[in-house]
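Please decode residue identities from the backbone states below.
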């Protein structure tokens, strides 16, 4: 269980009211696991620092690469999971087909969460429903404070439907300032939109991958999990 998956569980349960059984089915985990994390009210998973050896160790990267390649091929030309399992076995994998299938389910769910689309293409909406989304960005400005010209980091939060905006200035762009700006904006608006739209700022994204792949910062993910909105980049 990682921060991203816990955030998905919290959104589906508290915001969308998806039943525990359905959450467990979608994510390929047990209902007890889902129930435990919901009852704990944790926004960041807590678990002992240990790693249980898995037969997929040493094959997970190759398997993820194969799934990515197959997803780009025409449907009739794709290998089935049974064929992929057989190919892994030929390379020394000794695990079962079920283990490969479970890995594939998790991988597809992660891809779906990243792309937020089940169609063959993506689009940028020009209209937004009330409360659907907000946008966040930083800018720099200057002010005279105690007679001294001082550079400020200004947090901009804007509602995508009404274009109502909220500004708050800081001396630095840190996680504490990022969290503070969101808190005061949500308090001023009297609610939290379903989606937040960001650029690849360092306080949110540790690494930009290919396409829409992002390695999201764990502290930023904890904030998203706490407020129950979807973050898009």
């Amino acid at each position: 269980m990682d921060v991203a998956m816990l955030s998905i569980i919290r959104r589906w349960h508290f915001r969308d009211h998806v039943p525990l059984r359905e959450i467990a089915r979608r994510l390929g985990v047990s209902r007890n696991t889902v129930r435990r994390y919901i009852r704990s009210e944790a926004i960041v998973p807590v678990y002992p620092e240990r790693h249980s050896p898995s037969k997929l160790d040493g094959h997970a990267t190759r398997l993820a690469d194969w799934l990515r390649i197959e997803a780009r091929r025409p449907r009739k030309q794709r290998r089935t999971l049974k064929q992929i399992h057989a190919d892994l076995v030929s390379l020394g994998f000794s695990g079962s087909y079920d283990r490969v299938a479970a890995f594939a389910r998790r991988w597809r769910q992660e891809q779906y969460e990243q792309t937020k689309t089940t169609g063959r293409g993506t689009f940028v909406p020009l209209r937004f429903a009330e409360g659907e989304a907000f946008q966040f960005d930083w800018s720099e400005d200057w002010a005279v404070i105690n007679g001294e010209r001082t550079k400020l980091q200004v947090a901009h939060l804007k509602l995508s439907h009404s274009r109502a905006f909220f500004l708050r200035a800081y001396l630095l762009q840190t996680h504490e300032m990022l969290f503070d700006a969101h808190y005061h904006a949500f308090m001023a608006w009297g609610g939290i939109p379903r989606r937040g739209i960001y650029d690849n700022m360092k306080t949110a994204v540790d690494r930009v991958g290919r396409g829409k792949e992002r390695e999201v910062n764990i502290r930023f993910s904890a904030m998203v999990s706490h407020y129950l909105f979807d973050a898009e980049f």
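Observation: The chain has a mean pLDDT of 86.
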